[in-house]
Design brief:
Keywords: Flavoprotein, FMN, Oxidoreductase. By secondary structure, the chain is of the alpha/beta class. Helix content is 42%, strand content 20%.
C-alpha cells in the first residue's frame, strides 16, 4: 500500500511538524508500507493551467503523479483567512476530477483559532468529496497553543493523531475488502 502525506502549505512550520509526527507514526505502526511525505514548501509547483496532470514535468509532475499513485493520502493543512491555502487548492486543480476515487484521504488541520474548525467541513471535505475521495470522517484539529518550539506539546493531540493513523488504515482495509467483494461478483 502506498501512503503519501501532503503538507499543504509553502509557509510556516506547524503543519510540517504535525505531518512529520504523523508520518513517523505511520512508519512505526506499519513499517512494511510504502510511506512518504510531500511538503509543498520543498517543491516548485506550477500554477494549474488545465492540462492533463501527466503533461506536467519537474516538481509539478512529480507531486501530481505521486498523489495519483497513492492508495492513501493524509492531507495536512493550515487554515489561512478561514480557508485552505492557495498552494493546496492548486494541487487539487492540477488533478483530474476523479483523482481520489478508490483512495482513502484523512485530514489534519493546524489553525491559530478554534473559530476555524468548520473550514474543513465547509471547504476541504466538499472538494475531496467532489474528487471522489473516501474521507476518514474524523480529523485532527490542532491549535497554536498545542505547539512549542516546533514540537507538539499536547498529549491529547498526539493521541488523536495516533488514532487517526489507525482509523485511516482501518478504513482503507475495509474499503479494499468491499471493492474485492464487488469485483468477485463479476465472472471476468
Amino acid at each position: 500500500m502506498k501512503i503519501v502525506g501532503l503538507s499543504g502549505s509553502v509557509v510556516g512550520s506547524k503543519t510540517r511538524t504535525v505531518m512529520n509526527y504523523t508520518i513517523d507514526k505511520f512508519k512505526e505502526k506499519y513499517p512494511d508500507e510504502d510511506i512518504s511525505l510531500i511538503d509543498l514548501a520543498d517543491y516548485d509547483v506550477q500554477i494549474s493551467d488545465g492540462r492533463n496532470y501527466l503533461d506536467y514535468t519537474g516538481d509539478t509532475g512529480y507531486v501530481a503523479k505521486e498523489l495519483m499513485g497513492a492508495d492513501v493520502i493524509i492531507i495536512g493543512t493550515p487554515i489561512f483567512q478561514a480557508s485552505i491555502p492557495g498552494a493546496l487548492k492548486n494541487i487539487f486543480d492540477l488533478l483530474p476530477v476523479q483523482a481520489f476515487q478508490d483512495k482513502v484521504v484523512s485530514i489534519i488541520v493546524t489553525a491559530g483559532s478554534t473559530k476555524h474548525f468548520l473550514t474543513v467541513e465547509q471547504h476541504l471535505k466538499p472538494i475531496l468529496g467532489y474528487m471522489k475521495a473516501t474521507i476518514v470522517q474524523t480529523y485532527v484539529f490542532i491549535e497554536e497553543k498545542d505547539f512549542y518550539q516546533k514540537e507538539i506539546t499536547n498529549v491529547d493531540v498526539q493521541f488523536r493523531i495516533e488514532r487517526l493513523v489507525e482509523d485511516t488504515i482501518d478504513v482503507t482495509h475495509a474499503f479494499q475488502k468491499i471493492r474485492e467483494e464487488k469485483d468477485d461478483k463479476y465472472d471476468f
